[in-house]
Automatic annotation (TrEMBL), chain A:
UniProt xrefs under InterPro entries: SQR/QFR_C/D (IPR034804), SuccDH_FuR_B_TM-su (IPR000701)
Main location: membrane
Protein name as it appears in the record: Succinate dehydrogenase
UniProt subcellular location: Membrane
Keywords from the named record: Heme, Iron, Membrane, Metal-binding, Transmembrane, Transmembrane helix
Cofactor: heme
Taxonomic lineage of the native organism: Bacteria, Pseudomonadati, Pseudomonadota, Alphaproteobacteria, Rhodobacterales
Pfam families, A to Z: Sdh_cyt (PF01127)
Molecular-function GO terms, alphabetical: metal ion binding
Species this chain originates from: Paracoccus onubensis
Any one annotated GO CC term: membrane
Function: Membrane-anchoring subunit of succinate dehydrogenase (SDH).
Bilayer-crossing regions: 12-32, 52-73, 85-109
Automatic annotation (TrEMBL), chain B:
EC number assigned by the record: 1.3.5.1
UniProt superkingdom: Bacteria
Domain 2Fe-2S ferredoxin-type, residue spans: 8-95
The organism's taxonomic lineage, starting at the top: Bacteria, Pseudomonadati, Pseudomonadota, Alphaproteobacteria, Rhodobacterales
Protein's organism: Paracoccus onubensis
Identification of the protein by name: Succinate dehydrogenase iron-sulfur subunit
Amino acid sequence: MLNIRLYMAQRLSAMVMAPLVLGHIAVMIYAVQGGLSTAEILGRTQGSVWWFLFYGSFVLAVSVHAAIGLRVILHEMTGLRGRWLEVFTCGIGVLLLIMGARAVLAVTFA
Amino acid sequence: MSDRSKLLEVSVWRGTGDEGAYETFQVPARDNQTVLDVVSWIQQSADPSLTYRYACRVGMCGSCAMMVNGVPRWTCRTHVKRVLRDGALQVGPLRNLPVIKDLAADMDPFFDKWIRAGGVHRPSRSRNDPIQQVPPDDPGRVEANKGIECINCSVCYAACDTVAGNPDYLGPAALQRAWTLYNDAKVEDRQAVLDSVSGAGGCHNCHSQGSCTRFCPNELDPLSAIAGLKRASARSFFRRGE
Ligand code: FES
């Protein structure tokens, strides 16, 4: 249930995610090691275009990547195909995008 | 030393279409005996109504493949001794294909996909053109040669878990054929080959589990052929922007 476009979308989104995951882990370790408080963290992320772009592109890539991955699993486990499979794929993508966007906005908008 | 009194416990799938069950037969054990010999003995000496398929008996025609103790194998070249489990043998029709009767699987889906994957040779020259020279050490030829010993036995297709989960998936044999054509200097329209394996059931569905390469009786490597198709189609995706 993957054509070349979905395949490329999944691979390319993985390539975007890989460095962002490493960046995210590095930031977490830094924050914990340095003993940053919530207020200090928010002080740095809120109003920052860079953090917005960093986590914004992460959320975009995750939404694309996970929606396609779950589509494959669902199809191979249940045999679901056709329109409902498309609805499921888009639904998961939009759901992750909304959830992720809320989180990103919450920490980057002052 | 041959032990003429020894018996093998052989359970064989009997039934038509979706219905059926395993039936057990006692078959005389021989020193040298293939799984196909065992099935033939049952048909000739125990139950003439047993349906199965074979032709060459030397591993060339690809018609005798069956599930042997749960594993797809070419039965004419599989020695019973190598696959016996506690003196018993279970023989069933190939996995991932509909059953016609007993051990004869319906090969239509397998060959239909072969055609859907563009497996038909489309010549780039007519009979009036001079014969195209193909140097044997040309890299494309070397790559194509790796897949040409396929005997269409469908063992890889039966072994493939992706086929089991996704019935539209073209499967290892058909995709390996497409990769052979893609590398064949005599095929002009390479893009057409890539297009026919880039749809919903195409090469991109492969999870690289590698059962095809593991079980291919001719020791071919469909897994690498499919990886080659993925790479080639990804390159063409960037070139064409779609
Ligand atoms: S009978 Fe021809 S390959 Fe086994």
